[in-house]
Amino acid sequence: MVLNGMKHDTVSFVGVLSACATISAIKQGKEIHAFAVRRLFHEHLFVSNSLLDLNTKCERIDLSRKVFDSIENRDVASWNTMIFGYGMLGDLHTVIDMFEAMREDGVEHDSVSYIAVLSACSHGGLVDKGKKYFNDMLARNIEPSQMHYACMVDLRGRSGLMDEATNLITGLPFKPDSNVWAALLGACRLHGNVDLGSWAAVSSWVLCSSLKYLSRLVYNISAFWWPGPKRGANRDTVTRRGGPRGVPTVTNEDRSTRGAMTRSGALDLRGVP
């Protein structure tokens, strides 16, 4: 742009900082930050929020906090980015404190704010507090999304409340998506619940065009079912021999329409609360 005689604007800085955040290019991001300061673009809210996003994705919450504290008129995106950033680091108490401080700063929580705090409550085992926040969201007429329900399933499942998690799924006003089933699968692996985990795995399989992200978790669940030497011999699918009692099986027709449930790869739950 400079070589062509064009001047940078806010959109230029937001775009390049977003690109750096996507590839976790913290070194280049710092250079662009310094350049933005020299041109006084760092004072623009959109640029500041892009800097927050970059630093949190690069796990430099210390840099994010410096930028956050320098913003005069923070918006909901500023707060949400920081809450997610602390949540990624497992700093539960700071997540709760910042969530509560939003309103004191005159910023109302939105749908994303609740996803962030519910995810933190789930990972911290704060079941009652998570339920309170969910009810507070409903009272404020914020319609729960699939991700909110996935957080609530994870909240119950991680704490071993498998019946509550199952009842929540079966009582949903819409068909659960892969995020909800992945939350249940994670809880089943944690607690070794093969029957319920197989049900969740098959339900996820029906929804997903690719099972690569599910396969390792399915294998880990099946390890509880087939302990010892049999583990490797039965890793192709949890339901190969009909599955546990009461759990849907994978038929040849299912395989022809969705592809075989293959050897397990890893389920990355980082994108799931």
TrEMBL record:
Repeat region (PPR), residues: 75-109, 110-144
GO biological process: plant organ development; RNA modification
Keywords: Repeat
Pfam families listed in its UniProt record: PPR_2
Span of the signal peptide: none
GO MF: RNA binding
Record has Nucleus as a keyword: no
Start and end residues of each stretch annotated as Disordered: 234-264
The UniProt record lists the keyword Repeat: yes
PANTHER family assigned: PENTATRICOPEPTIDE REPEAT-CONTAINING PROTEIN (PTHR47926), TETRATRICOPEPTIDE-LIKE HELICAL DOMAIN SUPERFAMILY (PTHR47926:SF427)
Name under which the protein is recorded: Pentatricopeptide repeat-containing protein
